[in-house]
Design a protein that fits this description.
Helix content is 79%, strand content 0%. With 199 residues, it is an all-alpha fold.
């Protein structure tokens, strides 16, 4: 048990800062790119952000594998498996929202009519982070709750600002949430690493 806890703590501090920073940069770049592309409907929005998510996930796996090889540690260690299993249900549901959105009739060029997809993605991603937070220090869980509260708040305010949520503004919203929050947390981890595993 002690060895597992020490391994988990070491993996967290070594891996999370670059992962969060990389994911934040990808999210910001994706948001800016999506806004410049002026995506015209929900289907294009879903396909575009699904591709951005695959780039972020693929790059994160490469970073983790490179760190494991450099330190002569197994890539798919028991702590990594537990974290992946905790995150998988919420991530799977969030990922399935994309294909269901693509199959929904009436998703034309009038913006994002299907239940404000960015808010739902934020909520499910926040749930995934909270699940992972049970096996990590509390910082990941705090970030997860920030995503959940932000998603629910935007969902609750949707009657007020739903008319202005076009694919262009949706891209900026995704950039602020998935790019800005990850990047801010990654920078925080870099600057607080010497304090130990407090967060």
């Amino acid at each position: 048990v002690i060895r597992t806890l020490m391994e988990r703590s070491a993996i967290y501090r070594r891996a999370m800062a670059p992962l969060m920073t990389y994911t934040g940069i990808v999210g910001l770049a994706g948001g800016v790119g999506g806004a410049l592309l002026e995506l015209g409907d929900l289907r294009a929005f879903i396909v575009y952000w699904s591709a951005i998510a695959c780039i972020a996930l693929g790059g994160s796996l490469v970073l983790v594998r490179r760190q494991a090889l450099r330190d002569h540690e197994p890539f798919w260690s028991p702590p990594t498996r537990r974290v992946a299993q905790a995150m998988l249900p919420a991530l799977a549901v969030g990922a399935l929202l994309g294909p269901f959105g693509l199959l929904t009739p009436g998703t034309g060029s009038s913006g994002l009519p299907v239940g404000s997809l960015p808010e739902l993605w934020m909520c499910f991603y926040g749930c995934a982070l909270c699940g992972a937070g049970f096996f990590m220090p509390r910082g990941v869980k705090v970030l997860g709750w920030i995503f959940i509260v932000l998603g629910i708040s935007l969902w609750g305010a949707s009657p007020v600002w739903q008319d202005v949520l076009t694919p262009g503004t949706g891209n900026l919203l995704m950039a602020a949430a998935f790019g800005g929050l990850h990047l801010a947390y990654g920078i925080y981890l870099f600057f607080t690493e010497h304090r130990g595993n407090v967060l």
